[in-house]
TrEMBL record:
<feature type="domain" description="HTH arsR-type">
    <location>
        <begin position="1"/>
        <end position="108"/>
    </location>
</feature>
<dbReference type="Pfam" id="PF12840">
    <property type="entry name" value="HTH_20"/>
</dbReference>
<dbReference type="InterPro" id="IPR036390">
    <property type="entry name" value="WH_DNA-bd_sf"/>
</dbReference>
<dbReference type="InterPro" id="IPR051081">
    <property type="entry name" value="HTH_MetalResp_TranReg"/>
</dbReference>
<keyword id="KW-0238">DNA-binding</keyword>
<protein>
    <submittedName>
        <fullName>DNA-binding transcriptional regulator, ArsR family</fullName>
    </submittedName>
</protein>
<dbReference type="GO" id="GO:0003700">
    <property type="term" value="F:DNA-binding transcription factor activity"/>
</dbReference>
<feature type="region of interest" description="Disordered">
    <location>
        <begin position="100"/>
        <end position="129"/>
    </location>
</feature>
<dbReference type="GO" id="GO:0003677">
    <property type="term" value="F:DNA binding"/>
</dbReference>
<dbReference type="InterPro" id="IPR036388">
    <property type="entry name" value="WH-like_DNA-bd_sf"/>
</dbReference>
<feature type="compositionally biased region" description="Basic and acidic residues">
    <location>
        <begin position="115"/>
        <end position="129"/>
    </location>
</feature>
<keyword id="KW-0805">Transcription regulation</keyword>
<dbReference type="InterPro" id="IPR011991">
    <property type="entry name" value="ArsR-like_HTH"/>
</dbReference>
<keyword id="KW-0804">Transcription</keyword>
<dbReference type="InterPro" id="IPR001845">
    <property type="entry name" value="HTH_ArsR_DNA-bd_dom"/>
</dbReference>
Length: 129
């Protein structure tokens, strides 16, 4: 199975995200996935099996518990594949950063502050003493 076939499923992507923060028991993974996706324990087990069999997760026994962790090797392969596309979005993000900096410099140069009618709703204008 291709990496993107495995990670194309939102439940499996979420499980990988959970495991990226550290080792979790099957029960902990199931609790989160059940709450977020409404999937049963056997359904979560099936997703964990797909991740394990395709090299995205590893499992170890700790007594009766099964502890899962992300297996970074295939994710590094995905990252290397994505590398050739980074230039596309990096240029756009760099251009956005330049425009934001230009706008901040312009506001500082003019010494202007945002008009009161543009303040967020939870920040009413200050009253004068």
């Amino acid at each position: 199975m291709h990496a993107f076939d495995v990670l194309g499923d939102p439940v499996r992507r979420r499980i990988v995200e959970l495991l990226a923060d550290g080792e979790l028991s099957a029960g902990e993974v199931t609790a989160v996935v059940r709450r977020e996706f409404g999937i049963s324990q056997p359904g979560v087990s099936a997703h964990l099996r797909v991740l394990r069999e395709n090299g995205f997760a590893r499992v170890r026994a700790d007594g009766a518990r099964r502890l899962y962790a992300v297996e970074p090797a295939l994710l590094q392969d995905v990252d290397r594949w994505l590398e050739r596309f980074r230039g596309t979005w990096d240029r756009h993000l760099d251009a956005l950063a330049t425009e934001l900096a230009r706008g901040q410099r312009e506001r500082r140069r003019r010494g202007s502050t945002p008009p009161e009618d543009h303040l967020p709703e939870n920040h009413p204008p200050e009253e004068e003493p």
